[in-house]
Design brief:
By secondary structure, the protein is of the alpha/beta class. Helices cover about 45% and strands about 15% of the residues. It has one domain: Peroxisomal Thiolase, Chain A, domain 1. A hairpin with a 5-residue loop joins strand 7 and strand 8. This is 3-ketoacyl-CoA synthase.
Length: about 500
Amino acid sequence: MNTPLHVKLQKIMYRLVVDNFVAIFAVAAAAAALQRTSPEAALAVARAIRPAHWLLALLAAAAAAKLRRMGRPKDVYLVEYGCFRPKPWFRAPFATCLEHANLMPYLIDDESVSFAIRLLERSGLGEETCVPEAYHYMPPNRSLEASRDETELVIFSAVDDVFARTTVKPEEIDVLIVNCSIFTPTPVLADMVVNRYKLRADVQNVNLSGMGCSAGLVSVGLAKNLLQVAPPGTHVLIVSTEILSSQYYVGTERAMLLPNCLFRMGAAAMILSNSSERARFKLTRVVRTVTAARDADYRCVFQEEDDKGNTGIRLSKDLATTAGHALKSNIAAFGPLVLPASEQLLVALSFLKRKLLSGGAKVRLYRPDFRTAFEHICIHAGGRAVIDEVQHGLGLSDEDVEASRMTLHRFGNTSSSSVLYELAYIEAKGTMKKGDRVWMISFGAGFDCNSVAWECIKPAADADGPWVDCIHRYPVQLPEISKDISNS
């Protein structure tokens, strides 16, 4: 339903007045003061002040500004990012998935196969999503060697891509953070990157595991904390991935079959720095919310064995609802940091109205419009139900969640790297402009919800990236479904 023109104008005027209240008040006060003071009197006062006093005032102001800058945490920047782009021979179209499942009757029964196919058809995934080579064997190759092969392929491709896009060299990396939830070999993945790129002996390396799809933005928060106390010019390399080869579930528990159907191979790498030189985005806010104190949230994404001893990840049927609740808690902390005063005032007024009318009719709290704070929103492409839940909860349009839905369709759920594929989609479409603000939202085991805000300094010079060979076909029309199946 289109909003009437006069209502739109009223909203624009309201936001202009409230968001710029301080400036408007200052101008009005200055105008009033000048109106009461004649120009001759103001000039006489200025002449009465000695030049030495003017100099002292300027020095004091400069010193105060310097102290203020020294007391502020260092700004953090995203220099560049890169994503793994799978080759066509890794594709897993639905027909292939069905054929492979039917050729493994001793692992999965007919009812489970039918459930998995129905889930795929409703999932929002397209026919071009890719799985590792190990999944193309029957039965899938879940060996340590297969997992290492997948690791080297996706991680090294992503890191090669990010180094190719910037002038930062491997020897300039001071900190390395690698996150992967399930596969954690010895030596760890961080050491694998150090060995491949011959990073310096004094590089600080951290390997995060078990944090699910939220780990990529958790890594950004960790990098921010390190960079704000590091010497100027420090560089952090973050690598986010999920290695699937060792995770294939071979049982019949439906809640544990979901990851087989939804997760796809992917990886992303980003270089962060506390120097604005060569930077493309500025990090403005990081807010993390952990709801693991609630037992239902803690077990929402849970690795365990089924009754036959098969290990897998169990995804709760209430996962989308849990994500919605976690997002509400996250927004309560994130919103006041990013929303303009006009939106915060409306939230405060609706809250006050509810308190005052607590004995009367139920008052619905105002839902803030985050599109007043961000031009682009990247919701973790965990599944169609998760994106639907966030879209409904935030009152977003289909255009607002296009990057998330198209990333899910083209690449599937690539876990912690998905938000970087979404950022690449926005840039490949040419809609990212200097000064645009980006909100990344991720969910993960724990249960975690993370929000990260960026401001664009310099858009991408070209669309070369994971979407380079298919962006002209997107967005695509997704099939309508009457009811989704909860997924991660």
